[in-house]
Design the sequence.
């Protein structure tokens, strides 16, 4: 193992959920990232991507086309499922309850956005604690920085896309500036760094 | 061993219990993740170092209650939110209510009122407003007063005009209000059809018998127990074949009382009440 977390990787329990936050340039980055996730992934994947509040979200269809895992909008009171990609619906904050069921809220925007990465990450950090992996990708505001700190403080793992490789560097830079990033990696290396912490079943 | 998050969950439960025992407002069956965020924000606003530090204050500072309620029931609403829902109400629900000589409609959880005025405009355009009585209720008295005034910032008009057009409004939104540089106010002919009142879905009973209930994005804050309780209350309040409209992203998957309703337009979360069996 060469990821600098070798010893930690050995002793850690596998992660139960991967939370991902992105904004401007997020669709292209998510495609590259999720394309590398294998069928048989044993962790739930939960995504907040800022988007226009109006109209139906095309994100699930667009991502499903390039991903081996099922992709759908997160449904209120539905359980986060291992090997499933859940996307926050437009215009609602997405949270998760202790029993791993999703909750939605129309509370005020956080960092001018709804859904906010901070809201998901803070809620997920409380629920999954050290069995959570948080990822901040490309984006043009500072949403996610506080959330990533919460993930780290609860004992979870934190990865940030290298701002130099991001379509918009502000969001990863804000996350890095909190000092809460375990690792900063170019986009093409993120999937490997995530999957090494996840349970993966062999699928025939 | 209990960590910081565990302790904070204990503090949250104690705080909600103190609020209930002292003032009778019961947030104990609100969905935990959201109410916790709001309580944390309240603690920060009151400059309390912890949720527990608010407990003596809520017990002993009489004047704190309005502020606490205001923050725990954050009023967020807009005009013609989800325009397709208003279009569906216009096309699928109002024609079926047109045969009633008197129409009673209840909006439960009206917050600052943007939606209830949207509803009044819809009724006006379908020729039903003159024989309609709308009841708009909330637990947040500050929001209710704002709603009753019917005065809103013009800054959001552009968005509201767009929603109104997408809801296939038959006129211009500007036909229904008067504006100055900063604010607009809805006409008296809309306002006089709406009665604003304090009502708590958690603790109060049937408000009155009505033919249509709008309760959008309120039950998303409730746990399954409370969601069921509210749905049973709605069923009791609706006459035979009355209609219920919930938020488009709400889910009845955990609600036993979902069987009390039949889908009319599932995408828009519009149901009709199954007759009392």
Sequence:
């Amino acid at each position: 193992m060469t990821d600098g977390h070798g010893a930690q990787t050995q002793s850690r329990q596998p992660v139960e959920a991967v939370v991902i936050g992105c904004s401007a340039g997020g669709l292209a980055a998510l495609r590259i990232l999720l394309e590398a996730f294998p069928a048989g992934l044993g962790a739930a994947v939960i995504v907040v991507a800022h988007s226009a509040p109006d109209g139906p979200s095309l994100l699930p269809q667009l991502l499903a086309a390039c991903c081996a895992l099922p992709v759908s909008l997160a449904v209120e009171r539905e359980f986060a499922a291992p090997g499933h990609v859940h996307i926050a619906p437009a215009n609602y904050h997405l949270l998760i309850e202790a029993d791993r069921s999703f909750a939605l809220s129309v509370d005020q925007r956080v960092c001018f956005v709804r859904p906010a990465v901070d809201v998901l990450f803070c809620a997920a950090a409380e629920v999954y604690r050290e069995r959570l992996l948080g990822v901040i990708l490309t984006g043009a505001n500072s949403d996610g920085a506080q959330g990533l700190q919460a993930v780290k403080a609860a004992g979870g793992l934190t990865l940030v896309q290298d701002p130099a490789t991001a379509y918009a560097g502000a969001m990863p830079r804000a996350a890095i500036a909190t000092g809460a990033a375990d690792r900063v990696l170019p986009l093409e290396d993120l999937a490997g760094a995530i999957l090494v912490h996840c349970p993966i079943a062999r699928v025939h | 061993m209990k960590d910081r998050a565990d302790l904070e969950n204990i503090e949250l439960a104690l705080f909600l219990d103190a609020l209930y025992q002292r003032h009778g407002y019961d947030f104990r069956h609100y969905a935990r993740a959201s109410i916790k965020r709001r309580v944390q924000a309240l603690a920060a606003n009151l400059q309390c170092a912890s949720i527990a530090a608010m407990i003596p204050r809520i017990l002993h500072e009489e004047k704190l209650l309005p502020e606490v309620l205001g923050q725990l029931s954050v009023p967020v609403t807009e005009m013609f939110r989800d325009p397709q829902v208003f279009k569906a109400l216009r096309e699928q629900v109002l024609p079926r209510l047109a045969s009633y000589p008197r129409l009673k409609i209840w909006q439960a959880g009206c917050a600052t009122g943007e939606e209830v005025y949207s509803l009044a405009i819809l009724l006006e355009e379908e020729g039903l407003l003159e024989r309609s009585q709308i009841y708009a209720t909330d637990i947040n008295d500050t929001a209710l007063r704002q709603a009753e005034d019917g005065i809103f910032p013009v800054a959001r008009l552009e968005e509201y005009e767009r929603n109104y057009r997408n809801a296939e409004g038959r006129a211009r939104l500007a036909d229904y209000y008067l504006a100055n540089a900063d604010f607009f106010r809805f006409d008296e002919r809309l306002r006089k059809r709406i009665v604003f009142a304090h009502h708590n879905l958690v603790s109060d009973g049937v408000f009155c018998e009505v033919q249509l209930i709008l309760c959008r994005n309120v039950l998303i804050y409730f746990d399954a127990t409370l969601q069921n309780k509210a749905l049973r209350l709605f069923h009791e309040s609706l006459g035979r074949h009355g209609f219920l409209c919930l938020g488009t992203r709400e889910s009845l998957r955990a609600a036993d009382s979902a069987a009390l309703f039949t889908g009319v337009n599932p995408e828009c979360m519009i149901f009709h009440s199954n007759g009392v069996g």
